[in-house]
Backbone:
């Protein structure tokens, strides 16, 4: 064994192999960070690795029927929009940490349409795909050129604009005065926390009037097509994003009365009252914008209804675990970190609880 600048060369089966030291033990032994075949005698896995684009395409072929169609389309778009154009021509073993970090920086600063830069969330999604590609290569015996898991993208948590209690009451009154199937859908989301795709896919048979529950088990979305058809997009109705999203939601009594008043002569989709016609998410979003304008309420996106529902529940001291399951979250941390937006009124109410503490301990008494 020859030692040179902390790099060891081992002769094994007539092939040379480079091993990188991560640290040397007290007894003289060392731990390896990576093992990388040299050009003069590379392994079969290294010889067949090729450029990154080839591995990306193989990975896409491998996962196509292992994930939901919408998930595959998202993977395909991220790979073909960002990874392959920027890194695809690079040889697999030429990739290094610096190259990928520069790739991330470029996407954040000048990526996307108009070169205005991509959001941190999009770049994080791209890196998630790239990490899966690395795992795919590793599982097939291809040496990994560096530890990609150590590269992370800090996602900025944008504050979600929700409806105030006053705005929510104003919207409720407008919806009740202007009854329609689509407006009923808005009411359901505002008081049951359904997602946009879930309300678009909801059918009357999913509402149990005997149990007073809503069974959420499908979602609707428009995705890009990857076949040879002339249509660039299509609507799909599938199971929700995760197993936790399949749930039964108890219906509040007042909402139950409203649903019962709409029930007669309605079948199929809740938003149309017909089994042969539905309202797709983009159309529902536009309808919601129109309703806000009519009601004189500042514009918020449709998802704000879900956030508003969660916030009102917290203000009324809902059990967080119960609320998490109603929303279809995997754990309570998602509920607390993403969907709860304490209002100033709630903060002030909680801070006023300190007044009792001051009074009990005599801290609030005038000083003599």
Residues:
């Amino acid at each position: 064994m020859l030692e040179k600048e902390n790099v060891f060369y081992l002769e094994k089966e007539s092939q040379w192999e480079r091993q990188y030291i991560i640290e040397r033990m007290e007894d003289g032994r060392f731990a390896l960070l990576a093992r990388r075949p040299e050009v003069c005698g590379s392994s079969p896995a290294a010889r067949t690795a090729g450029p990154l684009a080839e591995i990306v395409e193989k990975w896409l072929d491998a996962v196509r029927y292992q994930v939901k169609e919408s998930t595959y389309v998202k993977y395909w778009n991220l790979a073909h929009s960002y990874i392959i154009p920027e890194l695809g021509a690079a040889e697999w073993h030429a990739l290094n940490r610096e190259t990928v970090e520069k790739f991330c920086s470029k996407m954040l600063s000048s990526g996307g349409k108009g070169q205005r830069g991509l959001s941190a969330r999009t770049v994080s999604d791209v890196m998630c795909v790239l990490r899966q590609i690395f795992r795919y290569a590793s599982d097939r015996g291809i040496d990994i050129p560096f530890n990609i898991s150590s590269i992370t993208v800090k996602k900025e948590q944008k504050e979600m604009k929700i409806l105030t209690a006053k705005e929510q009451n104003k919207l409720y009154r407008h919806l009740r005065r202007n009854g329609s199937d689509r407006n009923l859908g808005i009411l359901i989301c505002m008081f049951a926390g359904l997602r946009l795709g879930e309300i678009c896919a909801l059918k009357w048979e999913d509402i149990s009037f005997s149990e007073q529950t809503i069974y959420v088990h499908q979602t609707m979305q428009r995705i890009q097509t990857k076949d040879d058809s002339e249509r660039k997009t299509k609507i799909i109705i599938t199971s929700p994003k995760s197993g936790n999203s399949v749930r039964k939601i108890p219906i509040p009594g007042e909402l139950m009365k409203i649903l019962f008043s709409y029930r007669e002569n309605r079948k199929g989709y809740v938003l149309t009252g017909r089994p042969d016609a539905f309202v797709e998410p983009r159309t529902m979003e536009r309808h919601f914008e129109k309703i806000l304008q009519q009601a004189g309420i500042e514009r918020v996106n449709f998802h704000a209804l879900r956030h508003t529902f969660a916030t009102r529940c917290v203000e009324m001291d809902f059990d967080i675990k119960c609320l998490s399951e109603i929303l279809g979250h995997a754990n309570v941390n998602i509920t607390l970190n993403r969907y709860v937006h304490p209002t100033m009124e709630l903060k002030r109410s909680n801070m006023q609880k300190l007044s009792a503490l001051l009074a009990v301990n005599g801290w609030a008494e005038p000083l003599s």
Observations:
- The chain is about 45% helix and 15% strand.
- The two ends are 85 Å apart (CA to CA).
- Residues 7 and 20 are 6 Å apart (CA to CA).
